Fold this protein.
Amino acid sequence: MPTARNVLTPEALSMMEVIARTGSFAAAARELGKVPSALTYSVRQLEDALDVLLFDRGSRQAKFTAAGEELLNEGLRLLEQMEAVASRVKRVATGWETQLTISVDGVMSRLTMFELCEAFYALQPEGTTGGPGTRLRLRTEVLAGTWEALVRGHADLAIGVGTDRTLPAGIQMLPLGDLPFVFAVAPHHPLAAIEGVITDNDLLRHRAVAVADSAQHLAPITVNLLPGQDVLTVASMQAKIEAQIRCMGCGFIPEPLAREHIAAGRLVAKAVQRPAPEARMGYAWRATPANGPRRTGLGEALKWWLKQLESPATRKALIERHCGLLQQGLD
């Protein structure tokens, strides 16, 4: 009888991921180039070795049991770690990572990020053809989610994190710049007609629009919401701006993102009793060794990105350069 060690292979874990993504054994078999009976046999081998049921046999779809969900989640984590090992091995041999994952807060300039990506792909390192050979993966996160992606090992570089954090071992951070906020509403919103300063009592009578923190494990960050205030929660800052333009609520918006909408008359900036927030943003990366020189042990791709972020013009552009009414996420 096969043991758990013999059956918990990368192929088996990948099989679980394909079944979860496609939603059925038949679809998974087609993607994997197998007949359904062969896939079912592989699943039964896995179940026998682990002595658990991974799928609900009473469901017509590929429905995971609790044990199956746990194996899927842990399997995905192990596959990510295997990719990280492969990347480190390649870095030792060539200096260039197999993959570089960058976690970017949604308030950073998408235009600037893609210009940096274009410049990265245009590199021609000595002894290579067709660019550096490092796959880039960009993740759009919100608030604490940007930091969480880095500290939990899902990203190598995080752009747009709050600088008021205690750095764990192996993480280094430098300042990016200050991001001011402005309180804004649609011109036809009731708060737009108030003369003078808007008080907290005024705000309590109106719905706020908030962006959901994308952190799954760290404590989520909540900013400038009053107890008892009605709240519409959206997934991104761009969606928040859209909601406020449509007069669905009110709230603080990063001034660089609000600027063009205020100039065009789609939003009106208002003075409020509570002080407008100003976020001190930074960028952070995984460093090796934890307390060594700033670039020691880093791969060439990460070193290139850190070099770009040393430029004051690049840091300012990441905060300031925003255009277009709606900007979709990076990932």
About this structure: Residues 95-177+280-320 form a domain with the D-Maltodextrin-Binding Protein; domain 2 fold (CATH 3.40.190.10). The longest strand covers residues 171-185.
